[in-house]
Amino acid sequence: MVHGSVTRIEHGTNQMMEHGIGQRMEHGSVTRMEHGKVQRMEHGTVKKMEHGPVTRMEHGIVERMEHGTSQMMEHGIIQRMEHGSVTRMEHGTVQRMEHRSVTRMEHGTVERMEHGTIQMMEHGIVQRMEHGFVTRMEHGTVQRMEHRSVTRMKHGTVERMEHGTIQMMEHGIVQRMEHGSVTRMEHGTVQRMEHRSVTRMEHGTVERMEHGTVQMMQHGIVQRMGHGTVQGWNMEQLRGWNIDPLRGWNMEKLRGWNMEQFKKWNMDPLQGWNME
After folding, report:
1. Are 180 and 198 in contact (CB under 8 A)?
2. Which superkingdom heads the taxonomic lineage of this protein's source (predicted)?
3. Residue range of the domain that includes 37
4. What is the dihedral of CA 165, 102, 110, 32, to 10 degrees?
5. Could you report the per-residue pLDDT of 79-126, keeping only the tens digit for each?
6. Which CA distances in Å does 238 have to 57, 65, 220, 242, 258?
7. pTM
8. Which residue, among 98, 94, 71, 93, has the nearest Cα to 83 in the 3D structure?
9. Is residue 244 domain-shared with residue 272, that is, in the same domain?
10. Is 157 in the same domain as 246?
């Protein structure tokens, strides 16, 4: 069908529809629709849709949608969507989405999203997201996120995040974060963080942090921190710690600690340090 219009087609199939409009299509299938529009499609399948918008698609599948827009898609799957926008997608999966924007996606999965933006994604997984922005992601997992910014991520995991920023992350894990900044991370773990700044991290663990700054970290552990600065630790909570992992620290950078708390410690591991 070329240059046509479809209104209220139920349990039907459209193949090779170009420059058309489909409204209220239920339980149908569309193959190779170009430059068209689909509104209120339920329980359908769209393959190779280019330059078209999809509005209120439920329980559907879209494969290879380019330069399109999806709004209010629920329980659907989108694979290889390029230069598009998805708004309020719930319980869906997006694979290889590039130059995209996702708003209010819940319980979904995004793999290999590049140059995109995600806002209010809950209980989702993002793998290999580059040059994107995530705002208010809860209970999710991000792997290999580069040049990113994450705001208000709770109970999530980020692995290999480079040149990014995390604000208000709680109960999360970050591994191999480079050239980033973490603000108000609670109950988390950071491994191999370089050239970073951590502000208000509570009950967390940082291993191999170099050239970074830690402010207001409570109940945490830092191992192999080089050329960094630690300010505002609550030393009262550090009673009974094993100080062995702290060997090799540059004590010159630890100015501002409350050294009175060290009197109650077993100072044997600290013998030979320059406590000035």
Report:
1. no
2. Eukaryota
3. 25-114
4. -150
5. 767 656 676 676 566 766 665 667 656 655 676 676 566 776 765 667
6. 54, 55, 9, 9, 12
7. 0.46
8. 98
9. yes
10. yes
